[in-house]
From TrEMBL:
Catalyses which reaction(s): AMP + ATP = 2 ADP
NMP: annotated segments: 30-59
Binding residue positions for AMP: T31, R36, Q57, L58, V59, G85, F86, P87, R88, Q92, R156, R167
Residues that hold ATP according to the record: G10, A11, G12, K13, G14, T15, R123, V132, Y133, G203
Enzyme Commission code: 2.7.4.3
Keywords of the record: ATP-binding, Cytoplasm, Kinase, Nucleotide biosynthesis, Nucleotide-binding, Transferase
Protein name, entry field: Adenylate kinase
Record organism: Massilia phyllostachyos
Kinase in keyword set: yes
One GO molecular-function entry: AMP kinase activity
Gene: adk
Family statement drawn from the similarity comment of this UniProt entry: Belongs to the adenylate kinase family.
Domain Adenylate kinase active site lid, residue spans: 123-158
Location of this chain's protein in the cell: Cytoplasm
Length: 218
């Protein structure tokens, strides 16, 4: 099972990625993890990436694709792999295609923006333990107070409404075009074209999981 998971930030990709990883016994590949590992290992690509990042610049698609190809040679990718948060742009998608990275499925998790804002802006966290609450879906016994310690809960900057709206805007402007890109390729019937599946990310987590598994068995 070799797949790309697409969807807006807050659509639940991380949660579903964990279920998919376990079911198919495949690693989740994120560019952030790859970059950190390559820098730590001091590989040629890692050193090149570090130089760019230290200068406050974005790592080029060439370096990212090089890291992806290196990562896919590792033994844990024998059963397949799951790309989460990559590719982010048409240029990266083209580079992946041109370098012969095989994709069986592209799975889109669709959640309306207003629900994403409600989901993310309602999160409250207990910093010391990492416990997460939600003002609507999983509220603490007392407002903004941790159930266990009685300490105050915080809203992370990432979860503030204005931050969520900014992230959604970036997604719509830069990454949403990939939905059309992969849909068109899937419908082309060309050799090597992936299957494209779209599921709703609204509803109980288990229901979304079951829908994802069903979509990936079609």
């Amino acid at each position: 099972m070799r797949l790309i998971l697409l969807g807006a930030p807050g659509a639940g990709k991380g949660t579903q990625a964990n279920y998919i990883k376990e079911k198919f016994n495949i690693p989740q590949i994120s560019t952030g993890d790859m970059l950190r590992a390559a820098i730590k290992a001091g590989t040629e690509l890692g050193l090149a990436a570090k130089k760019v990042m230290d200068a406050g610049q974005l790592v080029s698609d060439d370096i990212i694709i090089g890291l992806v190809k290196e990562r896919l040679k590792e033994t844990d990718c024998a059963n397949g792999y799951l790309f989460d948060g990559f590719p982010r742009t048409i240029a990266q998608a083209d580079a992946m295609k041109d370098s012969g990275v095989t994709i069986d499925y592209v799975l889109e998790i669709d959640v309306p923006d207003d629900l994403i804002v409600e989901r993310m802006s309602g999160r409250r966290t207990h910093p010391a333990s990492g416990r997460v609450y939600h003002t609507k879906f999983n509220p603490p016994k007392a407002a903004d107070i941790d159930d266990v310690t009685g300490e105050p809960l915080v809203q992370r900057d990432d979860d503030k409404e204005e931050t969520v709206l900014k992230r959604l805007s970036v997604y719509h402007n830069q990454t949403e075009v990939l939905l059309g890109y992969y849909n068109k390729w899937a419908q082309s019937g060309l050799p090597g074209a992936p299957k494209y599946r779209k599921i709703s990310g609204v509803g109980p987590v288990e229901q979304v999981r079951d829908n994802a598994f069903a979509a990936l068995s079609e």
